[in-house]
């Protein structure tokens, strides 16, 4: 049996990797939103975050590997989408470094056109990504939603909201819209909040370009 990372953000980072093209399919702020939403979802599923009046609040004490629960505890109540956006880019570095330390990925610096610094990410064991993708695929097409593993259900919800083409191309999102909605309902408020963040960002970019 293939071992996979324990945390949902680490799993989503690996799911954003395209094994065929050997590169990340999502980067920057968009990937950061996915990872922040994954951290919020993990805490919500485990009861370490709860929802009150449409806002996350601390729940039962427990592990807080990315410090998200502590941020929420130290702040006045704010909506979910605020916490999806907050520190999104630094979340990418945090999860990437975690995976590199754990031996899941290799990170190499390179220069595009010999001038611009960039990173080359390589997954050390492709079976890990295949196993994660298999879990998400099974959640999308398999047993009744109530019996799906909670992290597999969340992976589908987050991949759909974050438009991760490596997991769910647009055609698949449209074909399985009802199933995705059911899995999203199981996974809590963070994925829908991320979807709103991404749509708002896209609308702002379109407005700026017009």
Automatic annotation (TrEMBL):
<dbReference type="InterPro" id="IPR008628">
    <property type="entry name" value="GPP34-like"/>
</dbReference>
<keyword id="KW-0333">Golgi apparatus</keyword>
<protein>
    <submittedName>
        <fullName>GPP34 family phosphoprotein</fullName>
    </submittedName>
</protein>
<dbReference type="Pfam" id="PF05719">
    <property type="entry name" value="GPP34"/>
</dbReference>
<dbReference type="GO" id="GO:0070273">
    <property type="term" value="F:phosphatidylinositol-4-phosphate binding"/>
</dbReference>
<dbReference type="GO" id="GO:0005737">
    <property type="term" value="C:cytoplasm"/>
</dbReference>
<dbReference type="GO" id="GO:0012505">
    <property type="term" value="C:endomembrane system"/>
</dbReference>
<keyword id="KW-0446">Lipid-binding</keyword>
<dbReference type="InterPro" id="IPR038261">
    <property type="entry name" value="GPP34-like_sf"/>
</dbReference>
<keyword id="KW-0472">Membrane</keyword>
């Amino acid at each position: 049996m293939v071992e996979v990372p324990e945390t949902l953000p680490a799993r989503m980072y690996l799911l954003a990797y395209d094994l065929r093209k050997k590169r990340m399919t999502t980067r920057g702020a968009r990937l950061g939103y996915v990872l922040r939403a994954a951290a919020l979802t993990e805490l919500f599923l485990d009861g370490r975050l709860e929802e009150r009046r449409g806002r996350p609040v601390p729940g039962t004490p427990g592990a807080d590997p990315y410090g998200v629960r502590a941020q929420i505890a130290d702040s006045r109540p704010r909506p979910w989408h605020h916490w999806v956006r907050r520190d999104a880019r630094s979340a990418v570095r945090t999860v990437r470094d975690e995976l590199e330390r754990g031996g899941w990925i290799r990170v190499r610096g390179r220069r595009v056109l010999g001038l611009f610094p960039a990173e080359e990410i390589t997954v050390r064991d492709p079976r890990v990504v295949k196993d994660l993708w298999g879990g998400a695929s099974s959640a999308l097409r398999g047993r009744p939603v109530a019996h799906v593993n909670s992290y597999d259900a969340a992976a589908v919800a987050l991949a759909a909201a974050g438009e991760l083409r490596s997991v769910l191309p647009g055609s698949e999102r449209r074909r399985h819209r009802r199933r995705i909605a059911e899995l999203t309902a199981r996974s809590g408020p963070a994925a829908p909040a991320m979807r709103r963040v991404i749509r708002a960002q896209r609308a702002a970019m379109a407005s700026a370009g017009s």
